[in-house]
Amino acid sequence: MSESDAFHHFSGTYLKVSAPAPYVALVELSRFWTELGQVFDRFSQEPTVRAVVLASALPKLFSAGIDFTALSLPQGDEPARSALRLRQHILGFQSCISAMERCPYPVIVATHGIAYGLSIDIISACDVRYAASNVVFAVKEVDVGLAADIGTLARLPKIAGNHSMIHELAYTGRNFSAAEAEKMGLVSRVVSGGRDEVVAAALDLAKLIAEKSPVAVAGTKHLLLHARDHSVRENLEYTATWNSAMLQTHDLTNAVKAAQKKQKPAFRPLGLKL
């Protein structure tokens, strides 16, 4: 099996998974469906992964949003039962999108072209967000008569520093550019070009991350997410408890020895597979 085929068995009907570099997985979407969450939950138990890049397989768009014609919303015989069924339906989609956040490895998303509605839900759940210069974003849900309910409104205020802009975009559904997304903090880098260029940049970052201690990287993601949802004092206390165990890793001594010899350190896989 070639390196690029290492994760082929993770592929599904609407997504392709490959291994373009050691310890790096590339997930390419052709259409959103719940198998996206299933794949990332499987990655969570894959010991040979250290970083994941999420991109679209389509040349001109990342995602135009949920295909409402493909959705079969649950119906009931009266409002209370209908609401309970619909709530479970929404929670299922939320869980699918949150799989990128649950994944212990850093997830880098590369966006290009059209990135509407569901696109914002998806990228907001990723750790690092790159955008091609040709991308056009929109929090589009208001234009189809609903408030975004799969993650955008929960995560954007914790990601982007410009809360006035977040409100404006969510209320109006207007398009906004890669430059605006970078200015408000939604993306950390704008890459000149389109899909190929932004995916290449994201893969370069993933390769760099994959060279680091997997214990240190996984712990860093875990602690950053904890810090987002807790006070400074709570996070400091939690970090002390976390690192009282994680500092006992052999990765620490390996990194120090390699630095002394001016060599790149070699680290064992995390071995998270259950």
UniProtKB/TrEMBL annotation:
Carries keyword Lipid metabolism?
Answer: yes
Q: Which Pfam families match?
A: ECH_1
Which Gene Ontology cellular-component terms appear in the entry? mitochondrion
Q: Which domain of life is it from?
A: Eukaryota
Q: Which Gene3D superfamilies match?
A: 2-enoyl-CoA Hydratase, Chain A, domain 1, Lyase 2-enoyl-coa Hydratase, Chain A, domain 2
Pathway(s): Lipid metabolism; fatty acid beta-oxidation
What would you give as a GO molecular function for this chain, any one?
A: delta(3,5)-delta(2,4)-dienoyl-CoA isomerase activity
Keyword annotations for this protein, in alphabetical order, are: Fatty acid metabolism, Isomerase, Lipid metabolism
Q: Which BP terms in the Gene Ontology apply to this protein?
A: fatty acid beta-oxidation
Describe the family membership recorded for this protein in Swiss-Prot or TrEMBL.
Belongs to the enoyl-CoA hydratase/isomerase family.
Q: What is this protein called?
A: Enoyl-CoA hydratase
Biological source species: Pycnoporus cinnabarinus
